[in-house]
Specification:
Length: about 280
């Protein structure tokens, strides 16, 4: 049944935020679906036994055993032994957990003055970083630098083959869920740029693409002041202007135009807070 397809999951990471499949709407093989499901649940909930995983995923034991063995062989997850409470008396449980230190991602952020790129593991440790300073006077010059930055990160990676998982890209403007940068006030001429397609080709990785303020808001929801909030309005102010984002249940709300929560574009006293 490998050829059977399902619609992609909205995978939820460890602390509850939704992670859309990078090719949202595209079919996924049943085998890939099951592997992503197991990885997502272990990352979200932490170590679990095969029995617990079976209950959470609904996968039958033979299927789950095959999926877990495959992920162990790939170095994506590993087995650990849990010592029972009470001084180690009793049967020890074999648990599965994500091999966070051995898995990594590339993160990229940019504006008219600079491009920042880092390599980071799933424990949050920055393994490598580089800044490409501008200015970038044309759309073409910025696009070239973004591609160069991603290629430099891939070249600097020390993660084993297949363990660099994805590229995350924070855009300074308004984006849509197809992976295009629609416009940015601070990037003149920057219109309808196919960022996910362009950088996915350079990185040879799935691309998670959104507004930079949206990623910052998710960071607060996972690690910061919004950890215990059901709904969050995030506001940021910098030399680039005023930005913001809305979260509901640690899910980033895009809105009809992709700009939900961007309070810099709201009229206040007859004036716009944003230079647009």
């Amino acid at each position: 049944m490998v050829g059977v397809t399902k619609r992609p999951l909205q995978l939820r990471a460890r602390h509850g935020e939704v992670i859309d499949h990078p090719a949202a709407g595209a079919p996924m093989t049943k085998s890939s679906y099951n592997r992503q499901l197991v990885r997502a649940i272990l990352y979200r909930d932490g170590p679990a036994s095969r029995v617990e995983l079976g209950a959470r995923t609904g996968l039958k034991l033979p299927v789950l055993t095959h999926v877990c063995s495959d992920l162990i062989d790939q170095g994506i997850i590993r087995e650990t032994v849990a010592v029972p409470a009470g001084g180690g008396i009793g049967r020890r449980r074999v648990l599965l957990e994500v091999e966070c230190s051995g898995l990594g991602a590339i993160a990229l952020a940019y504006d008219a003055a600079k491009v920042d790129v880092v390599l980071i593991d799933l424990l949050g440790v920055v393994r490598w970083r580089r800044r490409f300073s501008g200015p970038f006077p044309t759309v073409a010059s910025l696009a070239r630098k973004l591609t160069q930055a991603v290629e430099a990160a891939r070249a600097a990676s020390t993660f084993a083959s297949g363990r660099l998982l994805a590229l995350g890209v924070g855009d300074p403007g308004i984006v849509d869920r197809s992976g295009r940068s629609l416009r940015s006030v601070n990037l003149p001429g920057w219109r309808d740029q196919p960022i996910r397609e362009m950088l996915g080709t350079a990185a040879m990785l799935p691309v998670f693409f959104d507004r930079d303020a949206g990623f910052e808001a998710l960071g607060e929801a996972v690690f910061g002041a919004a950890r215990d909030s059901r709904c969050t309005l995030f506001v940021t102010s910098s030399h680039g202007g005023i930005g913001g984002a809305l979260l509901e249940g640690r899910r980033l709300i895009a809105g009809r135009s992709g700009s939900a929560g961007e309070i810099g574009h709201v009229h206040a006293g007859g004036d716009l807070a944003c230079p647009c």
